[in-house]
Amino acid sequence: ELDVVEYRKNLAIRVSGVDVPKPIKAFADCGFSNVLMNAIAKQGYEKPTPIQCQALPIVLSGRDVIGIAKTGSGKTAAFILPMVVHIMDQPELKKEEGPIGMICAPTRELAHQIYLEAKKFAKPHGLRVAAVYGGMSKHEQFKELKAGSDIVVATPGRLIDLLKMKALTMLRATFLVLDEADRMFDLGFEPQIRAIVGQVRPDRQTLLFSATMPRKVERLAREGLTDPIRVTVGEVG
Ligand code: ADP
Ligand code: MG
Fold first, then answer.
1. I need a labelling partner for 181 at 20 to 30 A (CA). Which of 18, 111, 175, 195 fits?
2. Taking a C-beta distance cutoff of 8 angstroms, is the pair 33, 88 a contact?
3. Distance from the CA of 143 to the center of ligand 1, in angstroms?
């Protein structure tokens, strides 16, 4: 099954997979809480970007996603908004058991950007976001994680260090995002990523984003995702 939607000249979105949920046209089609709708408006986001139109209903339905798109397409909100909904749907929040949402990104700069975007949508719901990356005090991060968090944004190396220090557990994690997977592999994080994926319960929801899909990343997607829907944004013609 292959759907190709052309949004504007030379920019096409291909969606492939079984039982693909229909794209949305507006944030109001997503069934978001008023709190979340207000946070979106406050960000100045009037309508979803093309990848958000396709990906939001898919991620909200609980499906795994492989998202292939260059930077600047609005991928962060496409996973943060459904992550917040996923967490708010959990029956009881026992923060000491570790985060529910786990996001891995290749560099501290990217992790920090995601952290800022995550806070905008998570904080209005009272959710706590922690950022974990090199260049910040490990001791401070240890204390922050110990205090409890619902979402953790991390670079793979520092996350592994803090898992070894038992600053957090993955017991409660059910929503895993691997952002810019190709760059994480380029930076040599494959072993750390495999270790992290191996620690998150297999019935999790997993999203993998990458600008390119080299063989190694395809293999990770095949091994780590379940019946994924592939959303590709790309130039054509
Ligand atoms: P990507 O991860 O695909 O590189 P980002 O999630 O970082 O893209 O988004 C790129 C920029 O677009 C950011 O400045 C973000 O705030 C903005 N943005 C995201 N979604 C929307 C939207 N629906 N409307 C307007 N701007 C948006
Ligand atoms: Mg991004």
1. 18
2. yes
3. 31
CA–CA distance, 103 with 84 (Å, rounded to integer): 13
Residue 143: which residues within 8 A CB-CB, separation 6 or more?
none
Please give the single-letter amino acid code of residue 168: L
pTM listed for this prediction: 0.94
The pocket around ligand 1, CB under 6 angstroms, is made up of: 45, 48-49, 52, 69, 71-77
Looking at all shown ligands, the one closest to residue 78's CA atom is 1
Residue type, 127: L
Ligand nearest to the CA of 105: 2
- β-pairing verdict for 2-8 and 11-16: antiparallel
> Ligand 2 centre and the CA of 211: distance in Å?
10
ipTM value of the model? 0.98
* Ligand 1 centre distance from Cα of residue 8 (Å): 18
Residue written as tokens 């895993």? 176
Topology of domain 2-235, per CATH? Rossmann fold (3.40.50)
5: number of Cβ within 10 Å: 13
Give residues with Cβ within 8 angstroms of 180, minimum separation 6: 105, 106, 110, 209, 210, 211
Domain ranges of the chain: 2-235
- pLDDT tens-digit series, residues 114-123: 999 999 999 9
